[in-house]
Amino acid sequence: MERISSTDLILNDDGSIYHLNLLPEDISDTIILVGDPDRVPRVSRFFDHIELKKGKREFITHTGSIDSKRISVISTGIGTDNIDIVLNELDALVNIDLNTRLLHPQLRSIDIIRIGTSGAVQPDIPIDSLLISSGAFGLDALMHFYEYQLGDHDEQLLQAFHEAITAHFDLKPYYAPAGEKLLKQFANIASRGITLTAPGFYSPQGRQVRAKSSTPNLLSILSSFKSSDGSQITNMEMETAGIYGLAACLGHQALSFNVILANRSTNQFSNDPLNIMDHFIELILNTIGKQN
Predict the structure, then answer these.
(1) Residue whose C-alpha is closest to residue 161's, from 110, 231, 114
(2) Rounded CA gap, 53 and 213, in Å?
(3) How far is CA 100 from CA 10, 182, 211, in A?
(4) Rounded to 5 degrees, what angle do the CA atoms 135, 77, 58 make?
(5) CA separation for the pair 186, 151 (Å, rounded)
(6) Which tens digits make up the pLDDT trace of 241-276?
(7) What global pTM score does this model have?
(8) DSSP-H helix ranges across the chain
(9) 176, 138 Cβ separation under 8 angstroms
């Protein structure tokens, strides 16, 4: 077993992991990811008890419990570049001895649950609703730097989307599915769809402000895509594909909840986004708290 170098796995002076500023005992086996650091206290206020608050840069962590269930909530900031940091450092906290820099003999799998905002691309998806990502296409480059495998169905789905998108643009998408265990656990609280993870907020999501887009019809191509089994892209955001891909590489379970605050096809936006988000945070936490 090779010792992981001090430049591959950087630690702070107190022995905590470099970016997250956390020690192994600071986190639970159930971790909620949110993008916005200000959303961390909006999640943890539903905890029965908060035992830890730590932060560094955009990475804020609260760990506490609901009933007897220990839960951590961590902010990632925006985008899959930050997901690369968060997922790798979370895995190091649970699977690497930070003193010896060696893997633990027994590797652990943790549950990673994203609660984020998203925009629907299909006109029949209502704003102020909740959607579970059964899988996600990534238009960013993150998972092209990692080795991972897809099942036959997922490979076919990726191939169909690759052909559809490259017929118009020189892009190389990837695909990653949700964790099967978590999909089953949360099957009854929201409908499912396929998410598109974009590498930006404006032109990469089909928005046009002042800078001229090289992909002016991107949104219509995404909304019209349909695979041979009828699968469609339902929504878009900026983290899910990276979370799913890295979780699969590292042996963790991941599930992404998307609070639909906008519908890009109908040009509608929520009139009450904070209260809508709070409602779904409480719903998801109550469901987590009931899990053994």
Answers:
(1) 231
(2) 42
(3) 13, 32, 50
(4) 150
(5) 22
(6) 999 999 999 999 999 999 999 999 999 999 999 999
(7) 0.96
(8) 39-44, 80-95, 152-166, 180-185, 218-224, 240-250, 273-289
(9) yes
